[in-house]
Design goal:
The chain has 377 residues and is α/β, with parallel strands linked by helices. Helix content is 36%, strand content 12%. The protein contains 14 helices and nine strands. Strands 7-6-5-4-3-2-1-8-9 form a nine-stranded mixed sheet. It binds iron/sulfur cluster (2 copies).
C-alpha cells in the first residue's frame, strides 16, 4: 500500500459529498500508568503485543496526510508509554502534520520533552484528575501522580510548548473547577478543556460514583460562562456539558465520518473512540487496507454518514444537521439500537427515564469507584 490517494477514491468521495477528515486520533497504546475510572478506552484493552510497530505508524501518518488530515492527536492510554514517541513525532512532522500530544504527563522527563520539542511537537494537552494530591492521586489511581504532573507542567512551561489543560469533571471533583481554571492560567496554558464526564468506556460502570447532580451541572455551566467573560483574551475555555442532564444531545464527532477518525493501538480504524461498543459494526485495519480506502469505502464509516439511516423523530427534525441525532454509541448503550435517537434528546421516548436514572445515579453517596484495568502483555 503506498500512501498516495488514488484518483478514483478522491473523485468518489467528492461525488458522494464525503469531505476529507481534518483530524486523526492515533491511540498509540492502551497502556497507562494511571487508571482513571472514566477512561474512554474500551473495557477490553488492546494488548501490548498487538500494538502497531513504529514503521506501521510512520506509514499511517503519511497516508493520513495524503488523505487530507491536518492535525494528528497522539493519544492512548498514555502515549509516553511508547518508547518510540520521539521517532513517531518526527515522522508525523515530516509528513506535514500538526502534532498534539495528549498526555497525563507520567512517563515524560525534562529530557524527553526537550527531545519532543526538537522533533517538532507542536502542542501538548495535559490531563488534570484533580487540583490537589488527595483528589488527583485517588481519581487517577496512582500515588505520586499529582506531584509528578506539576513537575511536568513546569517543564512544559519552561520549554514553551503551547498548552491545553484537560479537566474531566464529575460529582467527586466538580467543586474544584474554579481552582482548575486558575491552575491553567498559572501553568501558562492558552486553553482549558472542561469536560463533564461522558459515559462511555469505564465511565459507564462508574455512573453512580461519577454522575454529577443537576445542580452541580448547572453550576459548572455558570462557572465556565463567568470565566469566559472574565478571562477573555487570556484563556480559551472549551466546554462539554453534562450529557444526561441536557435536553439535546451533543453533535458527536461533528457528524459521523465527516471530520475525524481514530486509529486504535492494533490498527483498527474507528469513526469515533467508542465505536467498538456497536457490535454490528465491522472495522477495517490499516495493516490490510489503505487509510483512504477505509475512510471513503469502509462499512463502519458509511453506516451513519448523512441522514438516510435516521429513524423518527430525527428523520424529520429541523435540528438533524446541527446534532446529527446525537451519539451513535450512546444510542447503542442506552436504547440498544445505534440508529435510535440519542436518549439524551427531549424528543426521545427514553429521555424522561434517562433523566430519572441520572438523578438516581447522582444520589448514590455510597458508590465506590472502579478504576480502569491495564492491558495484558
Ligand atoms: S483517562 Fe486516565 S487511565 Fe485513561 S488514558 Fe487517560 S490518563 Fe490513562
Ligand atoms: S430528534 Fe434527533 S435530530 Fe432532533 S434534536 Fe433530537 S437527536 Fe437531534
Amino acid at each position: 500500500m503506498d500512501g498516495a490517494i488514488p484518483e478514483d477514491l478522491r473523485a468518489e468521495g467528492k461525488r458522494l459529498g464525503i469531505p476529507a477528515p481534518i483530524a486523526m486520533l492515533a491511540e498509540l497504546t492502551h497502556r497507562c500508568p494511571l487508571s482513571c475510572p472514566y477512561c474512554s478506552n474500551p473495557m477490553e484493552l488492546a494488548r501490548k503485543n498487538s500494538e502497531l510497530e513504529t514503521a506501521d505508524w510512520v506509514r499511517v501518518f503519511q497516508e493520513a496526510a495524503d488523505l487530507g488530515v491536518l492535525q494528528l492527536h497522539l493519544s492512548g492510554g498514555e502515549p509516553a508509554s511508547r518508547r518510540d514517541l520521539v521517532e513517531l513525532v518526527t515522522a508525523a512532522r515530516e509528513a506535514g502534520l500538526y502534532t498534539n500530544l495528549i498526555t497525563s504527563g507520567i512517563g515524560l522527563t525534562e529530557r524527553r520533552l526537550k527531545e519532543l520539542e526538537e522533533a517538532g511537537l507542536d502542542h501538548v494537552q495535559l490531563s488534570l484528575q484533580g487540583t490537589d494530591t488527595e483528589m488527583a492521586d485517588r481519581i487517577g489511581g496512582y500515588a505520586g501522580g499529582y506531584k509528578r504532573k506539576m513537575l511536568v507542567a513546569a517543564w512544559i512551561k519552561e520549554i514553551g510548548f503551547p498548552l491545553t489543560l484537560n479537566a474531566v469533571v464529575h460529582r467527586q471533583n466538580l467543586h474544584q473547577l474554579p481552582r482548575a481554571i486558575d491552575m491553567a492560567l498559572e501553568m501558562g496554558a492558552r486553553r482549558i478543556e472542561v469536560a463533564v464526564v461522558q459515559f462511555h468506556g469505564w465511565a459507564m460502570i462508574n455512573r453512580d460514583a461519577l454522575m454529577p447532580t443537576k445542580e452541580q451541572a448547572e453550576e459548572a455551566s455558570r462557572v465556565v460562562a463567568d470565566a469566559r467573560v472574565r478571562l477573555k483574551g487570556q484563556l480559551v475555555l472549551d466546554y462539554v456539558p453534562a450529557d444526561y442532564h441536557n435536553d439535546y444531545p451533543k453533535p458527536c464527532m461533528g457528524g459521523w465520518g465527516t471530520t475525524g477518525l481514530n486509529v486504535a493501538p492494533d490498527g483498527e480504524v474507528l469513526p469515533c473512540h467508542a465505536a467498538q461498543t456497536i457490535p454490528s459494526l465491522k472495522f477495517d485495519n490499516v495493516c490490510d487496507k489503505g487509510l483512504s480506502e477505509i475512510w471513503y469505502r469502509g462499512a463502519a464509516f458509511n453506516s451513519y454518514r448523512g441522514d438516510d439511516w435516521m429513524q423518527e423523530p430525527c428523520r424529520s427534525c429541523d435540528r438533524k444537521k446541527m446534532d446529527f441525532g446525537g451519539c451513535r454509541c450512546q444510542a447503542m448503550a442506552l436504547a440498544g439500537d445505534p440508529a435510535a435517537t440519542d436518549p439524551v434528546c427531549i424528543k426521545s421516548p427514553l429521555h424522561a427515564e434517562l433523566q430519572a436514572r441520572a438523578a438516581t445515579f447522582a444520589s448514590n453517596d455510597s458508590a465506590e469507584l472502579t478504576h480502569r484495568g491495564q492491558p495484558e502483555a
